[in-house]
Each structure stands twice: as C-alpha cells, then as structure tokens.
Amino acid sequence: MPSVTSKAASRKASQSRVAENPLRPVSPEELESWSDRDGDSESTLSEPLPEDLDESWSYTFHTGQAVWIRTSGGNWHSGRVCSGTTRKGNTREKEGLFYPVKFDGKLRKYFAPLNGEIKPDTPHTRRLLKDAGWL
Description:
CATH class: Mainly Beta
CATH architecture: Roll
Distance between the termini: 22 Å
Helix content: 25-40%
Structural class: alpha+beta
Largest sheet: 7 strands, antiparallel
Shape: globular
Strand content: 25-35%
Order of helices and strands: HEHHEEEEEEH
CATH topology: SH3 type barrels
Number of strands: 7
C-alpha cells in the first residue's frame, strides 16, 4: 500500500494536471458511449472494489446520486451529483469523466472517479470512510 506521502504527492500531481488541462463539456451522445465503454454503475459494482479511499474506481454516476467526495484539502464530505454538464479531462490515469457535485449545502465542484476523489455512497464506501476515521 502506498505511503501517505506518496498519496498526497499523487493527489497534488493530479490536481496540477487538471489545472493545466481544462475540462471540456461532454455531449449526451459522448456520455452514453463513455458509459457503454466503461460499463454502467450496476456493472461497476460487480468489479473489484477499491481497498483504499485514494484508489480510483471506474464508476458511472447519475444526476441525483448520493456520493462521497474528497476536497482539495483532503477532507471527505457527502454530496450529491447535481444536474449540469458532465465534463471530461485528464485524470491521474487517463482521460476520464468529471461529475458536478453539490456538497456542504451550496458548494459545487467537479470530481473524477479516476482520481479517487469521488465514490458512490455505498456500504463499502462508508466502511472505508469509517476505517479511515472519517465517520
């Protein structure tokens, strides 16, 4: 398992790549083909689950879905995927989707599953959060 230092360095590198490569809107057709390529959220639940909160998870989110997100400060918050344009851009692994999420009542930001910064609100995710001391 990577050390905390390497996780922080990985997060910082992914955030700087995002700043260098602005996000681009995804058309509904692109979003559908992306979901077909990566599998929908039901099929991704049958794939191996991440063993660590920092791990990426190729998961397709839907508007209104409850999620957990990691802010740039490293804190985890509950949120909800909001309506708006899903975007694409470079992640720490490859090009991926970024979902708009509202959290803390009013804040909205984009988060990418391939950066390990957004997870579905599932019993597995809540167990990871509890084991890490967030719940």
